[in-house]
From TrEMBL:
Pfam families: NMT1_3. It comes from Streptomyces plumbiresistens. PROSITE patterns: TAT (PS51318). PANTHER family: SLL1037 PROTEIN. Gene3D superfamilies: Periplasmic binding protein-like II. InterPro entries: TAT_signal, TRAP_TAXI. This is TAXI family TRAP transporter solute-binding subunit.
Length: 330
């Protein structure tokens, strides 16, 4: 089981994440100036404005622009992993943050009409599936959600896909046994507060500010999910890609400490045609500047070490990233 880390431990981890995409022209090496490196206008597909991906993206783009003055970075907030892969597919982004499970699905499942070729810069960090109900709710387990309205994450997010799998694993039919909505996080929180939604699911670092607000009023209880992992696996019974049992850390929320949930690894992925120079430069910056890329509120986010960075599973590393890792670590 993965150990929860606090911010100080995360700041020592030799790993971070970044993503860029071309806008109106190919990325190039800046061989004419004293500081060689990529140049261009860069777009980074992240996630919802109030969630972890976007916070991470803002930190990353600040580091990129400081290191490479000829880069002009753009953080694009999105619904999440599925939308980000669609942006890569449609050439409206070159890199993005996605759940490992969703990245694997893009290689050939019903989730996408046809396979989307992806390469990875690295396996960058791990977040938590957080399935919360109001503290005064009678619901104690996912199987108790029959007849209760739930929000399973915004349409286009990886959490939305995993959420339906979790309901099926608990023996519930989404839309039949359980009324399902796909609301952005802020709207889902408002609905829980108003009582029009009984539970919400999100994948992210802990504590998430939006959930912290709900935990203060009206109060939250977090449902255990780890027991459903065996039913989220493939035909051979293996857990889904990038999924493992974790415990919500003590102090993240008032009553969440020790709840056994599911950790979800996250990848920085790109189109195969991303410049080797850009991939190399990004990888070196991410390894060396990881301590600057931890959002202030992310006390429970799992930042992985340099050895885990290359563990991207069935998504192959971009050649430029692989070359950078070899150079840095042998």
């Amino acid at each position: 089981m993965m150990r929860a880390v606090d911010r100080r431990t995360a700041l020592r981890a030799a790993l971070g994440s970044a993503g860029v995409a071309v806008l109106g022209g190919a990325l190039t090496g800046d061989a004419s100036g004293q500081r060689p490196g990529p140049a261009g206008v860069l777009r980074f597909a992240t996630g919802e404005p109030t969630a972890f991906y976007a916070a991470f993206g803002r930190l990353l783009t600040a580091e990129l622009e400081a290191e490479y003055p000829r880069l002009s970075c753009r953080v694009r907030t999105t619904a999440g992993s599925v939308t980000n892969i669609e942006l890569l597919r449609d050439r409206r982004a070159d890199l993005a943050l996605v759940l490992t499970d969703t990245a694997r699905a893009a290689q050939g499942t019903g989730l996408f009409p046809r396979p989307v070729p992806l390469r990875a810069i690295g396996r960058v960090y791990e977040t938590y599936l957080q399935f919360a109900v109001r503290a005064d709710s009678p619901v104690r387990a996912v199987s108790d959600l029959a007849g209760h309205a739930v929000s399973l994450g915004a349409a286009g997010s990886g959490a939305a896909v995993l959420g339906e799998r979790i309901l099926h694993a608990a023996g519930l039919a989404p839309g039949t046994d359980v009324p399902v909505r796909h609301l952005p996080l802020a709207a889902a929180a408002d609905a829980v507060r108003a009582g029009t939604v009984d539970a919400l699911l999100v994948a992210g670092g802990v504590p998430l500010p939006v959930l912290s607000g709900l935990d203060d009023r009206p109060g939250l209880r977090f449902l255990p999910l780890a027991g459903l992992l065996p039913r989220l696996g493939d035909r051979d019974g293996r857990a889904g890609a990038g999924l493992e049992e974790v415990s919500l850390p003590q102090g993240a929320y008032r009553a969440a400490g020790g709840v056994a949930t599911i950790g979800v690894s996250n990848l920085l992925v790109c189109r195969p045609d991303l410049s080797r120079t850009v991939a190399d430069a990004l990888t070196r910056l991410l390894v060396l500047r990881a301590t600057a890329l931890v959002p202030d509120n992310a006390v429970g986010t799992q930042f992985l070490d340099a050895g885990s960075l290359i563990g991207t599973g069935s998504i192959p590393l971009h050649p430029g990233a692989a070359a950078a890792y070899r150079s840095l670590h042998g």
